[in-house]
Design goal:
alpha+beta, three-stranded antiparallel sheet, globular, eight-stranded mixed sheet, single chain, 314 residues
Length: 314
Amino acid sequence: MLLGSLEFSEELASAAESCSSSIVLASAFIKTRALTAILKAAKPSTSVSVIARWRPQDLVSNASDLNAYEFCVEHEYQFGISQNFHGKLYVLDRTDVLLGSANLTTQGLALQSKGNIEFGAKIRPRVEDIEKINKFLKEEVIWLSSTLYSSICDEISSMKSHCNLPLETLKWSNAVTQALEKPVSYLWVSELLFRKPSRLLNINFNDSLEVHDFELLNLDVDKLNIPAIKQAFRSSKVYLWINNQLKTHQKVRFGKLSHLLHNALLDDPKPYRKEVKDFVAVMYAWFEFMEEDFELSSYNHTTAVELKTLQSSA
């Protein structure tokens, strides 16, 4: 059944109230007022997990609240961060799932007079659906501690004090970045980039491969510039995978990276090695584009890449 904005929020609040076991609320943006409204009648015995994206831009722009974590601590709920999450997933007792376009905010759930126009649906998950959700919670979510929360608060306060900085340039310190990242060891082909970064600056929306990269990086057509593209790439799974490989192997040549990528792809059947080399060639174009992050070294018949942070600490 298709649910409109108000119907969706009423269904979510009602389902949360009737839950007897567990509630998972995962949304890119989360506001404390909306969280309070949905969980106000939840049973004290119900296990609640809340997941937000919490990129620096989200918190500086007030798209999400820092106070949501404090609300969760007060009620003994889990609070997690998944910086690549852009969905809206609400799981009730593992027997009902609400999916849609509505973020867990007052506007998204039409909890105020001028709410967004959103649509959603309620489904009964299959066993394999629950397995996917469990995998997401286990592998993609960093569960927040008071120490990490304190560091995040300090950095957001510092960013807000420099209010002239463009949102797309904001990024966590190395310490917070490392705390929020889980090593990415495997990828699907759909998580790779298909075009060189220069193509995104003048994107052709009739080119399905360019559109794939645009959507994968969650870019905004009204803010399509070099800093925004670089920041988006740093938040992608392919970037995290590359970092993991270079931290493990340090300097990696083209052939070695092709071998590592071929072994890391989960698709069955895997792409041919020629296709994998094409993906790696695109990666090298991104390495050149991200000159602040990567160092390239040319040899007679190949080029090697390494992380500049590792190089400078050596």
